[in-house]
Amino acid sequence: MNLEILNQQIDGLKDELIKAVQDCIQFKSVKDMDHASPGAPFGPGIRDCLEWTLSLGESLGFDVKNIDGYAGQIEMGAGELLGILGHLDVVPEGDGWSVPPYSGAVMNGRIYGRGAIDDKGPTLAALFAMKAIKDAKIPLNKKVRLILGTDEESGWEDMDYYKQKEDIPVIGFAPDAEFPLIHAEKGILHLEFSKQFNPLPHLREIQGGERANVVPDSCRVVLNGFTREDLSQKLSHYTFPEGVTGKLETSSGEDGLVLRFKGVGAHGSLPQKGKNAVLHALQFLASLDLSQEEAELIHWLNNRPGKGYFGEGFNVAFADEPSGKLSLNLGIMDLSARHIRFVIDVRYPVTIKEDQILKPVTACGQEIGLQMLTLSHQKAHHVPKDSPLVKSLLKAYSDVTGLEAYAFAIGGGTYAKVLPQGVAFGPLLPGEPEVIHCPDEYMAIDSLILACKVYAQAILNLAGA
Q: What DSSP string runs through 229-261?
């Protein structure tokens, strides 16, 4: 009976939810440390989005709290905590959009914009699920707390701060991945390599990627010592895969001729879903007549981070039964004539230890004198499939959707790792395309409403009186 009542309530909230998602997308909530300040530790865009969302929660009748701009929370009920962990920060928009990335445009039954599905749409779906339960006056025996994160796409500094200030729920879910349910998440390492050297004769610049957890969709290369005719001929005879282009810009840079490579962006946990513009630029550079030092560097890059998607080049191609294969993404490249710095994103299986990754990767870097630094590390996370949490959420999913319910593992890291017993739960439905971190990111309106209904039933399964 509650299921039917909730579904009716959510159908009645449909237009309000769509409008809220559109409005939320219009905040460019990208981390901006250059303009950080008290109350805006990750910049004004994220602060404004957080304050707006808390104001929305308050207008819907909930208790809200701003944790010094690092996070927020929206609550209902009383008792033991049930946590729902979403995030309002987004990755930079990148190139290749056919609609303005912060417009929240609605077309063909979809809401478009950076953050539509990662993670503003699902977070607001959870909020409106709480609203439906409140409006239906269905009693709860737990306090439901929607936690609004602001640094999920970077270093999770928000959660470090939050845990110092507030109680952390023991159980809950993150609406920031896929349905039916994710019970295991791989460990995540962001590793930086760097080296200084004497000025290189030809390679003046290789720049690509903004975040380690995104497959770069563009790369800028500046070369010295080549004629425009030489490079034009090389490009015309070079075969790029479908979806990848390399072009010589008409105007030269200060240090030489400028080439622009375009690929296909994707989430860093699924490098095989994208076409890494940096890697394709490096493969093209291997065809040029470079100095010995430059050729050795390019060869190493192509045969270490550039070899395969699963760590083959670094001799870390591990896999296990609970979580599958390790993945490796070259997410940031910053090379000048005097230095190189690049960052890789490694997602390792839940049964593998950190040292099993770091030792061989460090050894590979030492082959050409690279220093390695661990920028961040999220340990692997695993909740048994037969746990009450998993069973309750899968029942909510199957009851609402009528689809087969099962638990599986991913390489993506979600806020589920913040909770002792946390899992990732939606919103992407089986068969829907992966558009997280891609141009023209969107969430289908039907999927948004369905997710809201699933989250409402999930709350009742876990916190109903």
A: HHHHHHHHH--PPTT-EEEE-SS--SSSEEEEE
* Strands 371-378 and 187-196, bridge-based pairing: antiparallel
Residue 118: what pLDDT? 96
CB 47, CB 64: distance < 8 Å = no
**Run of H or E including 22:** helix 14-25
Q: What is the pLDDT of residue 465?
A: 78
Closest by CA position to 202, among listed 230, 176, 179, 180: 230
Biggest alpha carbon–alpha carbon distance for the chain: 75
Whole-angstrom distance, CA of residue 444 vs CA of residue 446: 5
Q: Which residues pair with 194 in a beta bridge?
A: 341, 371
What local confidence, expressed as pLDDT, does residue 120 receive? 98
- Give the pLDDT band (50/70/90) at residue 250: confident
Helix (H) or strand (E) holding 110: strand 110-112
Q: Lowest mean pLDDT: which of 111-125, 280-294, 378-392, 438-452? A: 378-392
CA distance 258 to 323: 42
Determine whether 89 is an active site residue.
Answer: yes
Sign of the dihedral defined by the CA atoms of residues 318, 319, 320, 325, in that order: positive
Residues with Cβ < 8 Å from 410, sequence gap 6 or more?
A: 177, 178, 182, 184, 185, 186, 269, 323, 424
Burial 137-166 (b: 16+ CB within 10 A, else e): ebebebbbbbbbbbbbbbebebbebbeeee
Phi and psi for 71 in degrees, rounded to 5?
A: -165, 175
- The answer to whether the beta carbons of residues 49 and 153 sit under 8 Å apart is no
The pTM for the full model equals: 0.75
Out of 93, 118, 152, 205, which one is annotated catalytic?
A: 152
Strand segments, DSSP code E, in 159-300 are: 171-174, 177-178, 181-185, 187-196, 203-208, 214-215, 218-223, 245-248, 257-262, 266-267
DSSP string of 72-94, one letter each residue: EEEEES-SSEEEEEEE--B----
Read off the tokens for 6.
Answer: 């909730």
Q: pLDDT tens digits, residue range 390-446? A: 999 999 999 999 999 999 988 877 999 999 999 999 999 999 998 988 899 999 999
pLDDT one-digit tens code per residue, 336-363: 999 999 999 999 999 999 999 999 999 9
Question: What's the Cα-to-Cα distance from 116 to each of 51, 76, 314, rounded to whole Å?
Answer: 18, 25, 35
DSSP H helices in 332-402: 354-366, 388-401
